[in-house]
Amino acid sequence: MSKVDQDRAAVGPEVVRVENVSKSFVIRKDNSLKERVVTLGRRGRAHQESFDALKDVSFSINAGSSIGLLGSNGSGKSTLLKVIGGIIDPSTGSVQRRGRLAALLELGAGFHPDLSGRENVYLNAAILGLSKDETDAEFDSILAFSEIGDFIDTQVKFYSSGMYVRLAFAVAVHTNPDVLLVDEVLAVGDEAFQRKCMDKIRQFQREGRTIVLVSHSAEQVMEVCDRGLVLSHGEVAFIGSAVDATRVHREILEGNRKSVAEAAAADAVEIAVVPQIVSIAVRNAAGETVESAATGDELSIDVEVDLPHDIDQWHSSLSIDTPSGQQVFGTGTRRHETSHGPNAAGHITVSYKFPSLPLAGGEYFVNAEVLASDGHPFDVQWQGAAFSVPATPSQTGSVFADTAISVG
Amino acid sequence: MTDSALNRFERLSAEPFIAPAGKVGIVGTWGSLRAVFDHRELLNLLVRRDIKARYKDSVLGVLWTLINPIVQLVVYYVVMGQILGAARGIDDFAIYVFSGLTIFGLLSESLTGTTGSIIANAGLVKKVYVPREVFPLASMGSALFTFSVQVVVLIAGCLILGAPPFTSGLLYFIPSVALIVLYGAAMGILFSALNVYLRDVQYLVQILLTLSMWAAPIVYGWSMVQDVFASFNLPHWLLEVYTNNPLTLAVLGFHRAFWTAGTDADYPANLGLRMLIAFLVGLVLLWLCQRAFARLQGNFAQEL
C-alpha cells in the first residue's frame, strides 16, 4: 500500500460496520404445498440442506476507501455484498451503515420493457433513492452520459443490450451515492464505454465516495481498489491492502488448482517409453531452488528430462502463465531454430536462463514440453513449477517496464 | 484529498449508523411506515408503471377496465335477476348488483395483484434494496385506479337509470372503501410474502375470492340471508358473524351509498358502528400482517 493510499483510507469515518455476520441458507427440494405436506416431519428434514455462505465475518469500511471483495466461485462474496446492501438479512450478527447507498448489482434491474427510456430513468432513479426534482436536475447529464440520444423516448424493449446497459449505468452513477456497491458489472459495453465507467469510478474516488467491488479479476481489483478482502468458503481469509489481497487470492486459487491437479495425477498411469519431464525447477543466480524472485533478478528455469533411450534430435519448449491462464511468455528450441541432441539415455537438464527477469508483481506458473524432431509431443507438464514476484508498487500488469514520467 | 471529499467525510461522521435489517415490534412498524413514506415517489411511479404497462399496445386501453365488470353485470342481471328471479325482491336490481360488484372488484383486484406483486418484481427484490412493502402497496394503488374508473361508470349508470345516488347515504362510500383498502392491504401484504415461499397461495387466493364473492350479499339481498337464517332456526350469533365480516359490511355500505331503492329493513342496525369496529380490528390485523411480512422478507432474495 503506497503512502497516498494509506492517507486516503485513514481519513474517512467508518461507513459500513459488519459484525460477526453469518448467513446460512436452507436448501429445500420440495417447493409446493403438496410436497411440503407429504414430506412433513422427519422425512421433511431429509429434504433440506443447510449451507453456510458466510461464517462470522467482521470488518469495517472507511469512507473514501475502495475495497475489493475477492474469492473463488461460491466463496460468499456476492452474498456478503447483498448483506451489506440490505438485500439479504444475515442469520446472525449485524450490519450497520450510514450515508446514501446505491447497489449496482445488476444493471437495469428495475427497467420495465414496455416503458420508454425516459420513464425508466425516472423509475430507476426513484428505486435508487432519487426524488423527482433531483432526477429532473440530473436528467440531461444522464442522457449525455448514456449516449442514447433520441432513443430516450423509445420503449426500452427495442434497445440494443449495449444501450440498455449504458442507460442503466448512467442512472446509477448519477444517484449521488456515498457508498457504491458494484458486482461485476463494470465489464459491460464497448471499450470506450468501459473507459468512461472507469473514469467515473476514479472521479467517485476523488470525491471521497466509498466503493465496494466484487470481482473475479484480481487485475480489476488492483486497478480500482486500495484495499482488498479475500473470502474463502465464507470466511475472511485476508483483509488488507489490495496488492496483498490479490496475492492471497492467487495463492488460494493455486491451492485449489494444485489439489485438483494432484488428484488427477494420482489416477494417471505412466508408461515411460518416450522422453518424460521429471521436474521443473526455478533457480536463482546462486543455483538455489526458489519460490519467489524479484523483478530484474537473474533466473534460471531448469527442466529435468528422463531419456529412456539414446536419441539423435529432440526439442523442448517453455512457457509462463498467470493464474488466470494468460500466457506472458513462451519460447523453445524450435522457435530459436535449433534443437537438442544427440544425447545418450539417462537424465538430462535443459536450462532456460533469464539474465534480468522482466516480470512485474504476481504469481506465475511454468509449463514445459518435450517434443520429437518432427514436432510430435512426447510429454508436457502444465504448471510444473510456480514462483511469485513481489508486488511492484509503481505499476500494474504482468510485464515489467522501467518507466519514467516527465512533463513537458 | 478534494474539498468535496472532506465535506462528505464531515457530513458522514455526523450521521448515525442505521441497520438495514428491520427491527421487531412497534418500533419496527414505525420504521417500515417511515421507509414507505420516504419512498412515496417510487410508489407513485410504480403505480403509474403498472397502469401504463398494462394497457400499452392495446387498442382499447383503459376501456378494458370497464368491459369485465359490465359483462359480469349483464350475466348476473340476466341470469340471476331475471331467469332465477332474484330481481323480484330487489328494486333497481342492476344498480344493486353493479354497486356490489364494484366494491368486490376492488377487493378482488387488489388481492390478486398484491399476492403476485413480490414475485412479479423479483428482479428488483433480488438486486436493489427498497422497502419491500412498496410492491404490494403499488398493486393496491393500481387496483384503486381501476376501481375509481368503475365508480364513475356506476354513478353514470345510476343517473341513466333515473336513480341519482346523491343522498346522505353516499357518506357510506368512504368507510366502505376504507374497509376494503385496509383488509385488502393487510391480507395482500401477508399473502405476497407467503406466496414467495409457497406458490400455492396465489391459487388459494383465487378460490377464497370466488367463495367470498358468493358469501357477500352482492347478487342477493341481506334480508334474504336473514330470512334463511330464521327459517332454519340458526342461532342469532351466526347471522352476526355473517353480517360483521368486513366484506359484507363494505358491500352493505356501498348499497347504502348508491342503491337508493333500499329501505331500513334491507340493512342491519348500527351499520356505521359495525364498520367502525371492523375498521379498528382491521388496523390491528394490518399491523400483525406487516410484522409477519417484515419477518418473512429477510429471505426473499434467496427464495426468488
Describe the fold and architecture.
The complex is a heterodimer of chains A (408) and B (304). Chain A is α/β, with parallel strands linked by helices. Chain A contains ten helices and 16 strands. Chain A has two domains: 3-99 and 178-253, P-loop containing nucleotide triphosphate hydrolases (Rossmann fold, 3-Layer(aba) Sandwich), CATH 3.40.50.300; 269-389, abc- transporter (atp binding component) like domain (Coagulation Factor XIII, Chain A, domain 1, Distorted Sandwich), CATH 2.70.50.60. In chain A, the strands form four sheets. A six-stranded mixed sheet of chain A has the order 5-6-7-3-8-9, with helices on both faces. Chain A has a four-stranded antiparallel sheet with strand order 13-12-15-16. In chain A, strands 2-1-4 form a three-stranded antiparallel sheet. In chain A, a hairpin with a 4-residue loop joins strand 15 (362-372) and strand 16 (377-389). The two termini of chain A are 29 Å apart. Helix content of chain B is 74%, strand content 0%. Chain B has 14 helices and no strands. The interface between A and B is large, with 51 and 41 residues.
Keywords:
heterodimer; A: about 400 residues; alpha/beta; Rossmann fold; Coagulation Factor XIII, Chain A, domain 1; six-stranded mixed β-sheet; four-stranded antiparallel β-sheet; 10 helices; about 35% strand; globular; B: about 300 residues; 14 helices; about 0% strand; elongated
